[in-house]
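Intended use. Records like the one below are meant for learning the mapping from a protein sequence to its folded structure. Do not use them to infer anything beyond what is encoded.
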Amino acid sequence: MTARVVMYSSGVCPYCTMAERLLQAKGVDVIEKIRIDLEPQQRAEMMVKTGRRTVPQIYIGDTHVGGFDDLTALDRDGKLDALLQGA
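Structure written out for the chain above:
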């Protein structure tokens, strides 16, 4: 059972695609995507929630991971798997 993954993204974002690939490689089957390019009001919501303007912005469970660089840093530090397992 993996934790719920939510990703604010846009259709033309290479970092969103790379983040999605990394998560899928970690066994995440479902990524709930919030497309800020298709729903502009979601960008404002994302900025309020995260304090950031760029995509992707990734949540694993209730934890705001951040962007692709933050996600890969978690993986490099060996902390991503535990977060995905809900630990």
